Structures are given as structure tokens and as C-alpha cells.
Amino acid sequence: MKFSTVLTLFAAASTEAxxxxxxxxxxxxxxxxxxxxxxxxxxxxDKNPTTIGWDSHKPVSVIPDSLVREGDxxxxxxxxxxxxxxxxxxxxxxxxxxxxxxxxxxxxQEDCWTRANGGGGMSRVLANxxxxxxxxxxLSVVYGSMPQEALQAATERGVDRAKGMAPGERVPFFxxxxxxxxxxxxxxxxxxxxNYRYFETDGGVWWFGGGTDITPCYIDExxxxxxxxxxxxxxxxxxxxxxxxFKAWAxxxxxISHRNETRGLGGIFxxxxxxxxxxxxxAFSTEALNSVVDAYGPIIERHxxxxxxxxxxxxxxxxxxxxxxxxxxxxxxxxxxxxTGGRIESILMSLPQTTRFEYDHKPEEGSRExxxxxxxxxxxxxx
Length: 383
Fold this sequence. Notes:
The chain has helices at residues 25-36, 78-103, 148-154, 158-161, 221-236, 242-253, 278-289, 292-303, 310-329, 332-339, 344-347, 368-377; strands spanning 58-60, 109-114, 119-127, 132-146, 171-184, 191-201, 205-215, 255-256, 261-262, 267-273. By secondary structure, it is of the alpha+beta class.
């Protein structure tokens, strides 16, 4: 079966079925995308390897100027691949520099790697800082083919998209993304996560995905107004429907189902986004990614020197346990990385340095901890 019959696919990090009220956009965009795609050189036998491999990551001291190569991977929009990678690399440098400045003590350790069949990545991780216990920003460029179960694990649409494929048939793909998780020491400073990505598969199928979300331990109304307000302004610059839809999507996605609570207080989240010209979605993704520190930095600066009690630190550790539960049980990016042979240190970089699990812990009704938990069970509007 030619994979060009597949309508759209999945995303490499947290994903969920797209909720816009419209017909499947990939059908309408196929011809348009063909005009954007550039011819690529004749494929070689290893361009869509049957497995990426746990040991396929070769450490290098200097990363190439670009990990995107025109002749690699499925046929598609090479210019967008290169442009998206360039944008991610610039954002990684900018964000890590700003976060190191906020920390004021620790610096980011950089690890680079490549793969013989194309792609590679760069992880920048800060540990044991003055403000941040752990913070990481990871760039990844991946060429390969995935098993159908990886497709099905990565997105709710994956189940339907695998129908009609021959048993054992693999899905050639290209993915590029920048992802991050930051865990501050002070329980009054929230954890923050973001991921922005671009995907392609054989047959001219493409889409963008991503988002930025926040996971505090306590509710500070002004903090939430600032964080959500920043992303509402970003969304409104591109489409006034983006913020309400993407905010609701984040509230649905970041749910720890076995506890019937979210891991935090949301933000924006989107996926399978290909309902308009790719350059317009690229512009939105670029502004959203470059607004991470604007949305998050002032909150950290405001609270990084706050005094806290031992009880507040314990609550932070318990909430970090919830973060671990979500990432290891439900996060589709983690599942996708593990099923496709991703670099394990980068996949698990999102986990906090320290955490705590207490048996049947219940905060006292009416307490700040209890109020926070209610917000995790019943989504609130912040702007």
C-alpha cells in the first residue's frame, strides 16, 4: 500500500485529536502542498530505516550547522524542514541564555549527537542551580520509519490512520522539534513545559503541533493571568479562535485519568494543525516559542526568593509525583520516543530531580493545597 493514502498522522510529543469543526484538512491541502514541495535526490536504501535503534546516537563534539538534509527522509517540503530547524536552534540558544541568567549560578551542559541515516539532536540541561533544580531544552531532528503501534500510541487519530495498512508495514516520517521542562526549587515557582514541532510523512502529509503549559503547586491569580494572558495575546495575533480552542485542548490533554485531575493549570496545546498555509502556522509557532520566557520568566523572578515551609516543600514533591505519573503513563511524546528508539536521556529529561509519593495523601479541605487540587479537577478560566 502507498502511504500517500493516509490522510494525516500523529505528533511526536503530547497529542490529541484536533478539535476544530472542519472536514479533514489534509485532503484539501494535498494539492497545495505538492506545489510547495521541492524535488529531492534519489533515495538511498537507508533513508527510511526500519528502526532508529537505541544505539544509533553518535556523540559529537560539534553539531553540524544543520541536521536537515534535502535528500533524506520521505519526499516533502524540504524548505520548511530547514526553516523550522533553524528557528528551533535559535530559540534554544535564546531560551537557555535567559534561563541561565535568571538562575544566576548554574549553566547548561550541552550534549550533541547525530545518526548515520540522518538527523540528530542537541540537549542542553542545567542541574543543581540556585533557582532551578533541573531545566532542559532539547532539539531533535528525526528521520526514520515507525511501527504502526507507535503511530497508534502517538495520537488518537493513529488508530484510524493505520486501517488498511499491511501487517508489519512501517510509516516513513520526518520530525523536528524543540521541547523543554523546567523544575524550580522554590515551591512557589511553577514548573513549565513547552514543545513545538513539525512533522511530515510520505505522500506530502504534514502538520504542526505544540504548546506551552504551566504546573504550579499553589494558585497565584496574578501569575496565571500573566501566563495565560501572554499566550492569549500571541494566539490573538494569528487567529482569535486559537486561545479558547487551544486552552481547552490543554485542559483536556494534561489529565491524569486514573486520578481524574490535571497535572497543572494548563496553557495552550494544539496538534494536527494544517488547515492553512504552512508559513502562517510557522509564524504562529515561532511567536509562541519565542514567548516562553516572556510568559514564564517574570513569574520565576517574582517568587524565586519567596520563603517557604517544610509543608510547602512536601506538597511540591507530591505534585511532582503527579508530574511523573502523567509523563510515564500518558504522555504520547514519551511513549513515541520509547517505541521508536529515541535517545533515552533526552526522553526522560522531563522528569524532576526529586519527587515524593505518599500513600493516600489528601489535603485538608479549605487549605491552599485543597484549592489547587480543585482547580486540577475543574478547569478554570484565567483571562
